Structure formats: structure tokens, C-alpha cells
């Protein structure tokens, strides 16, 4: 199978790495390069036309592969610039096994370099990039400078009605997403973790519960999803009602400090959510744990070979089967770009996705 190895290897940051020698940093020449006079390093490529024919075929197959059931690769991606010589700053240089990312710290106003990098990531690699920030108050993240948050969104745009203000807030996010051709929105929703506010509460998100958040999600879903864009929720997706959860594409849990397989499953076991097994993504904290692939001392109850080794946490997450026997929907890392410093780059996420999709294949239906 031609795509068998790409989940593990991706494209090496220093050039085109051979599929069988993914740790090799020497640039390997493609056969057709011998007949051309121009060579464009991958980091400098602007479109598919800048690639070798064999690379074009590879990425065509990759785009098709993304449509099939598999353990998805995700991450909150920071320090994105899309320029310079540091491959860490490019979406296009993320491992091929990464399906989508949430852009950490980005509110819009993309530079020309970011627009070009985003387009390459979308069109050539078939990846998706979402806006993301903590949704705590009506207007969090995008209130115009100099404006009072409540006055602007609720009084001016909502006519004094907080539900209408929430709808205006959602529409403004969609306007930004459409303007910059971004692939959707990741609602970082954490009222139980100290981020409660005018729109984030511990109430169930439903027409009879948190009506403001319900209207916010309804508006986002109605505009984003028919256009093929994504709407995901991280933090506390368990607060979604069954009906509201049908408007969400992925439930992302910050399973940073769990030490056992059973505690992770307990955290994410929310059968009231629509298609909860396949839509659930569990994530590891890499702001501190990037050197060791997550926390140390993690105990896998399923894979003895993972116990207490570096990478045990993320490896266990990628190969986790839920009570029904279905494989987890996906895995991810917080500040995934920190993993770039490992050798080879993005070592832990690459390896975990390789294990989850190839070494320990799971049941997806």
C-alpha cells in the first residue's frame, strides 16, 4: 500500500525524505529530478505545480486517505508565521498524518505569507486549519479595540438581548473565517476550569439550558458546516445536550494529567453525545511534556510495552479502544510545535499516529 508509511514519516523538514529511511536527513532526489534543471525545496513550494510528479501523486492519495476512517491527527498550533527558514513556523511542514489544527493565538488579519502557507496546506496536503480561542464572554477574542465588550455586542448589536448578542458574536466569527478562507472554528469552552462568563456557564447547552451558547452554536453550525467547514468543541464538550452535539464535528478533551487508561476512558465516556466514540479526540500537553511525549509514569492497561516509557501517554491514546470496541476518533497535542525540536521532528505525534493506524489497527465502524 503506497500510503502505508506516510502516517509515520511525513515530509522531512530539511528536504524530501525517503519513505523507507524516514530518519535520514540527507535529501533524496526523485527519479524525475534528473531530467529537470529547476529544483524547489518543499518549504519554498507555493503550489502543486512546484512539486515533482511523484509528489503530486502522493498528495493526491493523501487527500483521498483523509476521507477514510482512521485515528485523526490534531494539534493546537502556535508560532505560525509561514515565512523564514524555520520549518517549525509552517503549516505545510507539519507531518502528513496531521488532519487538522487549531491556530493558537490567531484572530484573523493573516499576512501574505500565512495566506500562501494556509492555501498550500489546504489544497496540496488536504489539511484544515481552524480559528480557536477561549469562549468565555459574549465577544471574547474579537471585540474591536476601544469598545466595551457588553456595550458593543449586547447593547449595540443585540439590542439589549444577550441571545441576540451571542448570535452577532457568532456571525462575526464566521465573517472572519470566510474572509480568510479558514476551515472552521474550535470553541474552547471551559466554564468549569475558571473560564465562566456571560456565555460560558456550567448549564447544559440546550434550548432550555444555556440559551446563549445554544444560539451561538446554532449560528456557527448553520453558516460553517453547509460550506464544508468544521465546528468543534474542546474543554468541556460533555456539557452539550444530545441534540446540540449533532451540530459539533469533534469533541476534544484536554486529557493532560490522566495517568491510567481507565481514567481517560472515564473522562471521555459521554454516551449522550452524538456518535461520541468516533467524534472524540483526546489530547496531551506538550508545553511541558514535549520532551517525553506527555507525562512520565503513565500506565497503559492495554499495552504492557508502553508502560512507563517515554511516549506511553500519547501512544496509549492513539491505540485506545472504547467500551464498544471502536477505536478513538483522534489524538492531538497542545502546542504541537514544541514537538518539532525532537529528533526526528514531531517525533511523538508521528509515532503515535503510526501506532494507532498501522501497528495496532482498530475498528472504526
Outline of this structure?
This protein has 365 residues and is of the alpha/beta class. It is built from 12 helices and 8 strands.
Topology:
Elements: H1 6-9, H2 53-65, E1 72-77, E2 100-104, H3 112-123, E3 128-134, H4 149-157, H5 162-179, E4 184-189, H6 211-224, E5 230-235, H7 242-245, E6 250-253, H8 261-268, H9 276-279, E7 280-285, H10 286-289, H11 312-318, E8 330-334, H12 347-359
Parallel strand pairs: 1-2, 1-8, 2-3, 3-4, 4-5, 5-6, 6-7, 7-8
Helix pairs in contact: 4-5, 5-6, 11-12
CATH superfamily: Glycosidases
Largest sheet: 8 strands, parallel, barrel
CATH architecture: Alpha-Beta Barrel
Form type = globular
CATH topology: TIM Barrel
Radius of gyration: 21 Å
Q: Residue ranges: pLDDT <50 for 5 or more in a row?
A: 1-27
Question: What percentage of residues falls in helices of 4 or more residues?
Answer: 25-40%
Account of the protein in words:
The chain has 365 residues and is an alpha/beta fold. It has a single domain (72-359), classed as TIM Barrel. 30% of the residues lie in helices and 12% in strands. It has helices at 6-9, 53-65, 112-123, 149-157, 162-179, 211-224, 242-245, 261-268, 276-279, 286-289, 312-318, 347-359, and strands at residues 72-77, 100-104, 128-134, 184-189, 230-235, 250-253, 280-285, 330-334. Strands 1-2-3-4-5-6-7-8 form an eight-stranded parallel β-barrel, surrounded by five helices. Helix 3 (112-123) links the parallel strand 2 (100-104) and strand 3 (128-134). Helix 4 (149-157) crosses helix 5 (162-179). The protein starts with 5 loop residues before the first helix and ends in a 6-residue tail after the last helix.
